[in-house]
Amino acid sequence: MPIIDNMIMYETFHGNSMTDNPFALFLEIVRQDTEKKYNHVWVLSHDPEEDIQAQRFSEMDNLYFVDLYSDEYLSAIARAKILINNTSFPPYFFRRPNQVYVNTWHGTPLKTLGKDMAGTFGQHKNLARNFIQSTHILSPNKFTGEKIIFSHDLDGVYKGEIIEEGYPRIDLAQKTTKDYLDNVLMNDVQLDKNKKTVLYAPTWRGEVDSVGNINDDLLQKVQLMKSALPADYQVLLKVHPLLYKYIKTDERFENIVISDYLDINEISAFIDVLITDYSSAFIDFLATHKPIILFQYDQEEYLADRGVYIPLDQLSIPIVTSDYELKKILQTVDSLQTNYVEFDKFAYTQLGDSSEKIVNHLLRKQEVKTVNYSNDLKNILVWTGKLNKEKVEQINSLDTSGKNILLWHPAKVSSDEERYVQCIKEDIKVFYNVGEIVYDRDDYVRYMMIRKNTVHQELIFDAERIFKTNIDRMFGDIIFETVIDMDGNNDFWIQQMFYGLPDAYHDLYLSLSDINNFDKINKNVKDIIPELTNVVSPSILIYELNLKNAIKLDSDYISEGYNFSEVNINGQDFTLNVPVNQDETKTFKSEMISSHFVNSDSLYILMLKNNRDKNLTDILDEYFKVVDDDKNDLVIYGNKNQIMQYLYNNDLLRKNILILDNTMDFNMVRYMFINAELIFDLSNFKYDNDFENLTRSISNKTRIIKYDSLNVINKCGGFKNSIGFTSVKEGIFAIKEFKHYKSLLEKMGADYARVLDEEFGIKKTNNDSKNYMTDINDLILSH
């Protein structure tokens, strides 16, 4: 349906009231619109008949109230030319191209915002999405604009205007007339016009089920203020919306508690002193040049789990932390200062004309001061799927210079995944998924056909339109040059990226597990994969899929996973291993291994990860019969009890044999002995996710014999004789079956190095494409 050019929609705190910045803009537009050109739609979550604020405008014939989330609400949000909100619209909302969306926000942030907040990861996900959807964000000062932009990862990618002309709502504290006092405020509370007024506006405390105790505590504070103040003062109370619904029926607060529906800035025009605690209301009040007191009697408790941007101990505004201190300062309230240094940082734009400037800009394109945080760099979108160490290392290897890297995360962050989110580089932006694809009834039918069937030519346009809707809903006008899908075999996200961003380069990232489960992808989705720009993996097994667009990533992230240091205990040297990642050290049991073996000049390693019983015995029989030299040091990794029993039964126990139980970290053991001459690594290649990274760390003298029961190496461009291969690095050889292991040992004897290098010398294949490797940044540059 067409957009209605003369319709303006307003929403404050999800319909809770007709207040704040949207209300101030509404008043200014109504003032200027003498011909009643505009129709005004206000969103309320309650009956307008019970709203003292709404009733002030009951005679306006161009004002309409709609119930939050009703059909009328949906119609207005889709068709109004101008949308004004001080928080956020629902996850299903996204701005149509010709709409204007002004997000006013609701205060200079004392407490942290967005990704800076403690608590659940991604709790700001819909707010960040709303900011991206907006065409304008209001900022009362440079400080607020910066905090909004950087705490929501909008720097570089936000294309709208940051208007730095002050807050419209603060105009109300400077310009509201006496008529408001007589006709509105006096009808809500009982005031003595001959007395000065203190407004107490505390923030929310406690739990909902302890409201009674909160009321009692609040009453005690109010009575303390009344008793301490000079006789020519009175006290009014403005509480948080969560508390108001309980306190308004408490007779003890009759005539002093102000309706939640009234705007605090209009009230501030008739207030002489403000007492608050952690609310940004005190920053608004700076523009009145009247006294402010911050009553923070529970400062330590309240701020324990809440970060703050403004250090409290650096404020020039007086802070009291006990009833005694409050009583003392109120007794001398007339001598309190009225000008604070914070004015120059937070209220310098508040000249009483903010509403007028902003309205004139919105309706008549008159110039205002704007701040630009965008850049012209290329945007890279990375859908993460569930994060793990491998993905985080690949993400952190992305070069952020000259481009904006945006991560799109599923938003459900498990406790195990939290540390991975925290490890992401600071200059990589993280956006958390919220909501679902929006479609009408007919599109839902098309969507299900697309999801479950091969997409025929006539449905491609519909597929692109439906999936692009979801991109637009999350990222607005941001244009992506490249998409990296790290969710492997996830059918939905392969389709989402392919159809939703048809003009972008598409790279699909497959882990070893994804490759092993590749056959489980639905056929209709599997048909898309050859059409992607690249299918990439750190595993050489990517070539087993026989995709023309397959590329192996050259990645070294595992090789840096452990630190090794020398320690001396009672005259004996040991090598101590500790993971580099500090989070892993909490659950990691460090092992000390005699440095004699780690630094040995003649060391053989048997890595028997899963071998046991007869299989283990057969391997050890062949090794000790053919290869073993009692002068060489030997490390055997496997089932320690069975290996010890074998050595004891065969009279093979000696000091230069070290047995390491397979409960120890497998990769830590391999990296500790990278200087060994010969390594028999008999863990199955297809399921060994770290082997290729190990090969980049071994010394030039090292030869590795690798077990390859599925003949994967040969499929991936290895030696034609299927015994040795050079797909990863020279000096690494493969055996397919145990009989090959036995025959290899027989050929090798004790002179293994010469035999390996001569018998299985380097014979490179002509399949250069199968040996091509790149890192993820070169891949992006190649686009």
Which class of secondary structure composition applies to the elements?
Answer: alpha/beta
Overall spatial form: elongated
Number of distinct helices: 32
Strand content: 15-25%
Verbal overview:
The chain has 783 residues and is α/β, with parallel strands linked by helices. The protein contains 32 helices and 30 strands. Strands 3-2-1-4-5-6-7-13 form an eight-stranded mixed beta sheet, with helices on both faces. Strands 16-15-14-17-18-19-20-30 form an eight-stranded parallel beta sheet. Helix 19 (457-475) packs across helix 20.
SSE inventory with pairings:
Blueprint: E1 4-11, H1 20-32, E2 39-44, H2 52-55, E3 63-67, H3 71-79, E4 80-85, E5 100-103, H4 125-133, E6 136-138, H5 142-151, E7 161-163, H6 168-175, H7 178-188, E8 196-201, H8 211-228, E9 233-237, H9 241-247, H10 264-268, E10 273-276, H11 281-285, E11 292-295, H12 299-302, E12 319-320, H13 323-330, H14 343-346, H15 354-364, E13 370-371, E14 378-383, H16 389-396, E15 403-409, H17 415-422, E16 429-432, H18 441-452, H19 457-475, E17 482-485, H20 491-500, E18 505-509, H21 512-516, H22 523-526, E19 534-537, E20 550-553, E21 562-569, E22 572-579, E23 592-594, H23 595-598, E24 603-607, H24 613-627, E25 633-638, H25 640-649, E26 657-661, H26 666-672, E27 678-681, H27 691-695, E28 703-707, H28 712-715, E29 732-735, H29 738-748, H30 752-759, H31 768-771, E30 773-774, H32 776-782
Parallel strand pairs: 1-2, 1-4, 2-3, 4-5, 5-6, 6-7, 8-9, 8-10, 10-11, 11-12, 14-15, 14-17, 15-16, 17-18, 18-19, 19-20, 20-30, 24-25, 24-27, 25-26, 27-28, 28-29
Antiparallel strand pairs: 7-13, 21-22, 22-23
Helix pairs in contact: 1-6, 1-15, 6-15, 8-13, 18-19, 19-20, 24-29
